[in-house]
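Hi all, a correction to my earlier message: I attached the wrong file for thioredoxin-dependent peroxiredoxin. Here's the right sequence:
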Amino acid sequence: MTKLKAGDQAPNFSAKDDQGNTVTLADYKGKKLVVFFYPKANTPTCTTEACNLRDHYKELKEKGYEILGVSADSQKKQANFKEKYDFLYPLLADEDKDVIKAFGVWGEKKFMGRTFDGIHRVTFVIDENGMIEKVIDKVKAKIHTEQILE
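and the right structure:
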């Protein structure tokens, strides 16, 4: 896993969102952006995390943040996840893992005694110039907005 840190330039990316639109880092130039990576749509912790951001969406927007969720789920799964929970922000369907790998969040994980490669739950806060302001690698799903704003 590559370790991006505060002060690094955010990787340029291009991926399809839940509606099939192409989304790039350049689309957010001049805006603050929260990019949160999660392992799998419709799983308990990922749902809690995404719903926390949904529930505090207005507060995040008032502070100038745009939000993007990213997983390797298909566009259809992302669309279903977004619709089911009423998310007001795009979810990227990064099936080829290009964005996931560019941000360095793909790597070895351990769960219930087994080791495998997967997506690490990491959030990046990116400033208006595309620089990483903060990396949250110990995401607490129930209070994720607090972690972003503190």
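Sorry for the mix-up. Strands lie at 14-16, 22-24, 32-37, 65-71, 91-93, 106-111, 114-119, 122-126, 132-136.
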